[in-house]
């Protein structure tokens, strides 16, 4: 397989998580054929997935971080082969309020997919993860209301994630969808809040989206998504 760096590979859609279609339908070993960097979640909404430098980690509902083997399965994930380019050295504090504008003021990329990698020192970080769910699965918003939050001060680590154009909200998160992992694996998960005061922000633009659907899943194939408030659920859960 040719390792192209201009393609974002997405398995599943964020929308399929909204009604609770959490079954893992792709093995991690197959996912990593399409990228060495990315984010996602596991079977049964089992934690937050971070793929960094070809190594996959799971942040579970207790905040514990462990490396994953190839048998781990996912219902949804985004991956790509890293080829980041430097964007800016952080001289003033970067927070969720100004991260997107910091990027888009330098790159006219609001209508394309791109990835962000930001490594440095953070005054504070707040993340979340969710316990693995049992069938019958609840809707995504119910899971989000029972999320576990984790906080750390003075930590060095990496933000990884993606920007999706608003046109694709539902297939993905319109705007930024970010995960975090500390260098010492002391904290990680879906990124809720942060204050980065030193480090580097790198970006990678994609001109191709490869979308793979779980067509082997009867639940997915038979579900009527027109009955789901996809945008509302994503806005609350993410």
UniProtKB/TrEMBL annotation:
It catalyses: (2S)-2-acetolactate + H(+) = (R)-acetoin + CO2. Its EC number is 4.1.1.5. One of its GO terms (biological process) is acetoin biosynthetic process. It comes from the Bacteria. It holds the Pfam family AAL_decarboxy. Belongs to the alpha-acetolactate decarboxylase family. NCBIfam families: acetolac_decarb. This is Alpha-acetolactate decarboxylase. It comes from Apilactobacillus bombintestini. The lineage of its organism: Bacteria, Bacillati, Bacillota, Bacilli, Lactobacillales. The gene is budA.
